């Protein structure tokens, strides 16, 4: 999914557009980073929409997705679901998981961590 000014998106059955002006778009992105839910073009953007945007935008940055902050904003169960969904990509090497010290977490370590959460 590509993010662009004014790009209409269909998420969870709701169509909405991101702000068309750069200043408004920058505010929208800042709200995403801050975990603030809001409205966009008079179409309500719910927490599921926001979570998808946060994941997709974060994975396009060098910093990546901070699972601790994401969990605080959207809940631990969503973090577990997300880790389960990305497990195959960790195994294939397409997604790299890092611990808080910046060391790589292997697919086996990730599986172990996920099984301990059950």
From TrEMBL:
PANTHER family: COPROPORPHYRINIGEN III OXIDASE, RADICAL S-ADENOSYL METHIONINE DOMAIN-CONTAINING PROTEIN 1, MITOCHONDRIAL. GO terms for cellular component: cytoplasm. One of its GO terms (biological process) is porphyrin-containing compound biosynthetic process. GO terms for molecular function: 4 iron, 4 sulfur cluster binding. The lineage of its organism: Eukaryota, Viridiplantae, Streptophyta, Embryophyta, Tracheophyta. InterPro entries: Coproporphyrinogen-III_oxidase, rSAM_sf. It comes from the Eukaryota. This is Uncharacterized protein.
């Amino acid at each position: 999914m590509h993010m662009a000014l004014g790009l209409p998106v269909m998420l969870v059955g709701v169509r909405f557009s991101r702000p068309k002006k750069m200043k408004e778009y920058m505010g929208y992105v800042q709200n995403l980073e801050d975990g603030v839910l809001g409205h966009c073009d008079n179409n309500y953007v719910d927490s599921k929409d926001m979570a998808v945007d946060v994941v997709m935008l974060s994975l396009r940055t060098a910093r990546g997705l901070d699972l601790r902050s994401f969990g605080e904003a959207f809940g631990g169960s969503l973090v577990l679901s997300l880790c389960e969904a990305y497990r195959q990509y960790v195994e294939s090497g397409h997604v790299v998981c890092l611990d808080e010290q910046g060391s790589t977490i292997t697919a086996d370590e990730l599986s172990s961590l996920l099984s301990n959460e059950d």
